[in-house]
Amino acid sequence: MKICRFDNDRLGLVIDGMVHDVSSVQDEIRAATPYAFKGDAVIAALPQWRDRLMAAAQKVPGRPMDQLALLAPVLRFTKVMAAPTNYRDHIAEMAALRDNQPSKMGSDIGKAGIFLKASSSVVGPSEGVPQRFPDRRNDHELELVMVIGKQGSDIPYDKALDYVAGYCLGMDLTVRGPEDRSFRKSVDGYSPLGPYMVTADEIADPDNLDMTLHVNEELRQSVNTSSMVYNCRKLIEFASSFYTLYPGDLFYTGTPKGVGPFRPGDWIIARSAPLGELRIQVRAHHA
Question: Looking at residue 96, what is its pLDDT?
Answer without folding.
Answer: 61
